[in-house]
């Protein structure tokens, strides 16, 4: 099964949306295999967003992402990366469809409440970065009710 990294950003944590977001992924049928609430360091966030280092908004992004705790998660399931991104919605909330997390729960791009891996390769890199201790391997009793 494929794995994806999903992070609830400081605005989502502060607004009390962890449960709502977890519920959506669980309801879809994905399996939670790692989760932690953490307040990342500047260095940790700079490494996470290294591909955006040359962007004008980088310093503000890092300052914001270190302003409070984030909820780091790994979800597992068929097509987890692509489906997870669809569930989050477009990066720009105003372009997100109703029914998506961003379409339903946020307005501004700078407060778009979540991050999701954009490919299997980046998911693997992000999972290793956020969970160096590894993930929890387990078998869900609902697997036969989700997958054929």
Rg on CA atoms, Å: 15 Å
Residue windows where pLDDT falls under 50 for at least 5 positions: none
State the separation between the terminal residues, measured CA to CA: 13 Å
Overall shape: it is globular
Oligomer: single chain
Catalytic activity: a 2'-deoxyribonucleoside 5'-diphosphate + ATP = a 2'-deoxyribonucleoside 5'-triphosphate + ADP
Family: Belongs to the NDK family.
Keywords: ATP-binding, Kinase, Nucleotide-binding, Transferase
GO molecular function: ATP binding; nucleoside diphosphate kinase activity
Question: What can you see in these coordinates?
Answer:
The protein is an alpha+beta fold and 148 residues long. The protein has eight helices and four strands, in the order E-H-H-E-H-H-E-H-H-E-H-H. The chain has a four-stranded antiparallel β-sheet. The longest helix is centred in the first third of the chain and has 11 residues, at 18-28. The chain is globular and about 45 Å long.
What's the topology here?
Layout: E1 2-8, H1 10-14, H2 18-28, E2 31-38, H3 42-48, H4 58-65, E3 70-77, H5 80-88, H6 101-105, E4 114-116, H7 120-130, H8 143-146
Antiparallel strand pairs: 1-3, 1-4, 2-3
């Amino acid at each position: 099964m494929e794995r994806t990294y999903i992070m609830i950003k400081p605005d989502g944590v502060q607004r009390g949306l962890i449960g709502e977001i977890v519920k959506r992924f669980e309801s879809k049928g994905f399996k939670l295999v790692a989760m932690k609430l953490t307040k990342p360091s500047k260095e940790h966030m700079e490494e996470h967003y290294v591909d955006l280092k040359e962007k004008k908004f980088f310093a503000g992004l890092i300052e914001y992402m270190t302003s409070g705790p984030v909820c780091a998660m790994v979800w597992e399931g068929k097509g987890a990366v692509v489906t997870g991104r669809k569930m989050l919605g477009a990066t720009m909330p105003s372009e997100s469809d109703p029914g998506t997390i961003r379409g339903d729960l946020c307005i501004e791009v700078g407060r778009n409440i979540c991050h999701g891996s954009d490919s299997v390769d980046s998911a693997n890199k992000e999972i290793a970065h956020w969970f160096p201790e590894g993930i929890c391997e387990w078998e869900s009793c609902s697997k036969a009710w989700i997958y054929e």
